[in-house]
Each structure stands twice: as C-alpha cells, then as structure tokens.
Design goal:
The chain has helices spanning 4-20, 25-29, 36-40, 47-50, 57-118, 148-158, 171-180; strands spanning 126-129, 132-135. By secondary structure, it is mainly alpha-helical. The longest helix has 62 residues, at 57-118. The protein is extended.
Length: 215
Amino acid sequence: MFSPVCYADDEADLQAESVSTLPSLPNILFPDFGNAQSVISPDSDDTATSTFTVDTSSKASWAIATILEAEERISQRKALADEYKARIDSWLSSSCNQDTNTISYITFLLEPYVRDEVSKLHKSKTLSLPTGTASLRKLPDRLEIIDNDIAIAYCETEHPEAVIIKKELDKSILKDLILKQTEHIPSVSAELGSDKIYIKPLKIGKPKEIPQLAA
C-alpha cells in the first residue's frame, strides 16, 4: 500500500512537468529571437551569420528576461535539492537513533571488563575475542578557552611565552599604496576592480492612491 506522500510527490512531479512545457516569458514577448539554447549553441556552421548580437533594446530586454528565468530555474532546483537533502538527513538521524543508543549503552557496559582484562596484558592494549577486538586508546588532550580576553590578559603578565603575537598586513593600506601611489611591494599583486553586470527583476511599485475630496 502506497503512502499519501507518494501520491503528493507524483502530483508535484506532474505539475512541474506540465509547467515546463509552457512557453517562457522571453519567447512570448520576443518570439523572433528564439530560445536561449539556440543562441548558446547555434546549429548553423557559419558563425558569422549565426552569432546573436545584442544591439537593440528589444534584444537587451529579451536577454535580461532570459537570464532572470534561468536564475529562477536554478533557484528552484536548489530549493528542491535542499528539501530532499533535509528529508534524507532527517531519515538518517531517526533511523540511526536506536542503534546509536545501543552502541553507547553496550560500550558503557563493556568498558570496565575491557579495562580490567587489558590491565592483565603485558604490552598490548587490545583484547581479542571470537567476535572482534576491543582496544584502549588515549584520546587527545582537550583544552577549551572560555574567555579569550581574560586568558590573554592573565598570560601576558604571568606567562608571556603562552601569548602568540600574530602579524597581519592591512589590505586597505596595501591597495592604496599599490593602486593609487603606484608603489611596488614585493610578493603582493593588486588590480583595479572591473565593472560586472548584475541582473535584477524590475520592481513595479504600487499605484498611489488618489486622495478623495471632502464633500
């Protein structure tokens, strides 16, 4: 018996498939320019005649609309992927929860016996049994700095050898020296930032309400 979730997923897939068959907004507004795929990968071997050039406001509008639609499709795919990843992570966590608790509890019961048996061995810290081995290994020493400022202030006075003085270069000053004052600094490269085009959808504001005159 199938769960209702399966039917919901199938319905969503059918809806997505039906929407994908609809013509895009750029194709409706600018049918003469074709679709983006034909522009990116023209079928014609003559590149001189098949190259698409943006040289009018209509073509520029088509290009912007095509970019926005492509970005929207990417955003939808990412949202769908994130949703599926969240479902998988949730399933993995819930399905492993009982086994994780079993491992923790049985290890707690087993550890005293292993420690006692390993203490009887001369050099080895591994207990071999018919079903597997159990070893004792020292974990790395743990250190946690609760308040960094308080600890540094104390060590600067009592134990200065524990304080590390880190040297860093000021990138804003370096940019000024190289780009504005044209000074050469060894092992540092810099270049002026170039303009980059950013595409955003057009925001249409709400029409202003016309104030009514008092009667």
